[in-house]
Design brief:
Layout (H helix, E strand, L loop, with lengths): L26 H20 L7 H10 L2 H16 L3 H22 L2 H12 L8 H16 L6 H17 L5
Helix pairs in contact: 1-2, 1-3, 1-4, 4-7, 5-6
Length: 172
Amino acid sequence: MAENPFSHPSTLPYQMPPFDRVGNADYRPGFEAGMRQQREEVRQIVENPAPADFQNTVVALERSGLMLNRVSSVFFNLNASNTDPEMETIDSEIAPKLQAHEDAIYLDPALFARVDAVYQRRAALGLDSESLQLLNRYYIEFVRAGARLGTADKARLRDINGELSSLTTHSA
């Protein structure tokens, strides 16, 4: 079995996807492997025994999920511009899984605690403007995604997000 074309960054100029090697059969395993990799990367961030800082939390989070980003960017761009019935089926199957994956990250109390700890110390960190913007963006994304909600509200939000993700893939 050939290696998934999304497993590694492309060696083409600008890391363009190797479209000559990408087929519909690559998306499901690409998504699954990408989510699995990012879950492991996030687990390592959460379990890092060092106090949360910009590098071991925000930068590590920013660098997580690269394979998932590669497969997602190709799939969703092609699905929007040149879809076919199989891609639509994949979209319907993967949307709830991707939403659950995103919820698992943004609603993880231990991960948010690390992001929040860095955010609360932002003025004292001496970050350049780009780093400060990245920190602010992550903090706001976590809060908007529900990180501050209680357990029951997070469960309800997960249900709503799952339902919405399924509904958005159905044709009218």
